[in-house]
Amino acid sequence: MAQRATSWPAAASARATPALTGPRTLATVLASLPQALYLRCHDGSVLPVVTRSGLRLPTALVLGSAGPPASWGVQPGEQVVVGDAEVVLPAGIVRVVRTWVPARFRCGAASPERMSAVAAGAGVEWQARALFVARAALCGHDLADSVSAMVGRGPGLTPSGDDVLCGLLLGLRPVPRALAGVWAAVAPRLGATTSLSACLLAEAAEGYAVPAVLRLGDALAAGRVGAGGTDVVGRAVHEVVGIGHSSGADLLAGLAAALRAVAQPARSRVRLAAGVPAGVPAGVPVGVPA
Question: Tens of pLDDT along 158-215?
Fold first, then answer.
C-alpha cells in the first residue's frame, strides 16, 4: 500500500499570488530557511511559505504548525509544484485550508518623543539619504536620481536601500501625494532588485508590512510613550530592529525620516529639500551593489 503523503494545513494571505490557486505549475526556490521558504512562481510573483513562528509577510502562506521537522527538502534553484491551493514539496504537501487578511500600517503625526524613539533604532548609513528623499517627496521634487541610487542597493534578499524605501513608503501614508511620488520613482526600477524585495516594496506602497512593523505603527498612532512607566513605542521599535540582519533597522531609517519630514514646517522643508544629503551627493549610489 502506498504511503500517504504528509500534509500541512496552512492559511493563505488574501494578498498571496494568484499562482497559488491557479493551475499547477513549477516554481523556483529562491531561499530555503528554517522558518521560511521563498518561491518564485511562473508569473514572476513570489510566494513566501512560512512556519507558524516565521516572519509573516503580507503575502505569505502560513503553516498552522511548525512545519517540516528537519528542512523543507529543497534548495535554492530547485523547483516545486505550486497551484490548486497547494505547494508540493519532497517532504509533503502544504494545503490551503483558510484565508487570512493582512492589516494596513497606520500612523498619524508623531511627537518629538515618539520620533526620537523610532530614530534610536534606525540604521545610520541611510538616514541622510532617507531624509532628503522624504523632504523632496513632500515638496513634489523629482525623485528619479535619488531613488535609483537606493533600489537594489545592498546584499541579500531584501537589500538595505529597499528596506529604507519601504519605511519611507509606510511613513508617508498620511500624505498621499508624497507617497505617490516615491512609488512613481520606485516602480519603474523594481527590475533592479530581487523579486522578493520588489514584492515587499509593492506591498509597502499599499500600506502592508510584517506584524512587528504594524504594531509599531499602532503604538505611534496611540502615542503611548511613557504611559504608566511603560515605553510601548520603544518596545515596538526593539521588535522591529530584530527583523533580519539589518532589515528592521534600515526600515526604521526610512520611517524615522518620513515622520521627521512630515512634522517639519513646509517653509523649512522646502529650503532643506533644495540641498543634498550630508556627505552623500544626490544621484551618487549608496551602499553595496546587489
Answer: 999 999 999 999 999 999 999 999 999 999 999 999 999 999 999 999 999 999 999 9
Residue 268 and residue 141 share a domain: yes
Beta bridge partners of 36: 33, 50
- The Cα–Cα gap between 85 and 116 comes to 44
Instruction: State whether 76 and 96 are in the same domain.
Output: yes
Number of domains into which the chain is organized? 2
Largest CA distance in the chain: 77
pLDDT tens profile 233-282: 999 999 999 999 999 999 999 999 999 999 987 665 555 555 544 344 33
Q: Alpha carbon of 51 to those of 4, 10, 73, 158: distances in Å?
A: 22, 9, 14, 19
Among 194, 193, 198, 170, CA closest to 182: 170
Give the relative orientation of helices 160-171 and 195-205 as an angle to the nearest 10 degrees.
10
Question: What residues pair up with 48 in beta bridges, in sequence order?
Answer: 38
- Taking the alpha carbons at both ends of the chain, their separation in whole angstroms is 50
Domain annotation covers residue 281: no
Instruction: Determine the structural domain holding residue 25 and report its residue range.
Output: 7-100
Distance of CA 63 to the CA centre of its chain: 20
Q: Where a domain ends, among 33, 66, 100?
A: 100
**Closest by CA position to 220, among listed 181, 179, 262:** 262
User: In degrees, to the nearest 5, what angle opens at C-alpha 177 toward C-alphas 172 and 181?
Assistant: 80
What single-letter DSSP state applies at residue 189? G
Mark whether 42 and 171 lie in a shared domain: no
pLDDT digits (tens, 9 = 90+) for 87-103: 999 989 999 999 999 99
Together in a domain, 74 and 127: no
Q: Does residue 229 have a pLDDT over 70? A: no
